[in-house]
Amino acid sequence: MTELKSLFTREKISGALRSLIHLTVSFAVIYGFLLLGDLLSRWIPFPRSLIGMLLLFLTLELKIIRLEWLQPSGRLILTYMALFFIPPAVGIVEYGDLVMNNLGIIALNVFLGIFLIIAVVGHTFQFINARSERK
Predict the structure, then answer these.
(1) Cα(90)–Cα(96) distance, rounded to whole angstroms?
(2) Where along the chain do its domains lie?
(3) Do residues 80 and 27 touch, judged by C-beta distance below 8 A?
């Protein structure tokens, strides 16, 4: 009985409640940016999730939102990220014949995408590096 009482002390309950509130608020902030991206995507022809992520990134960079505020939900999302890839994998298996018929186009898009990402990241790094050397 004393072991059970030690599980439910006032300090442990208040700490757990504080953690739950912090987790809920951090999820709400991230979800709020998704909703803001959804609202803006009606006027901007860009995916809503990317708009939301860009806005969240800007607010983090401008120090409007502190990273510590988002860490509880960020850790939880990263822990279970593999589960987010199950639906696309099931879709690929379900439409395997369609994927195989268009494998050349898919492979071309993947390689072009990788090349473009490397090029953009490389040029961005060179630009930022040159700018920081001037300061």
Answers:
(1) 10
(2) 1-84, 85-135
(3) no
Long-range Cβ contact pairs of 120-123 (< 8 A, separation 24 or more) = none
pLDDT at 126 over 60: yes
4: pLDDT strictly greater than 60: no
Distance CA 106, CA 7 (A): 54
**DSSP conformational letter for 51:** H
pTM for the full predicted model: 0.60
CA dist., res. 50 & res. 70, Å (int):
18
Amino acid found at 128: I
135 vs 125: CA distance, rounded Å: 16
At 129, the amino acid letter reads N
Total residue length of the chain: 135
Residue type, 67: L
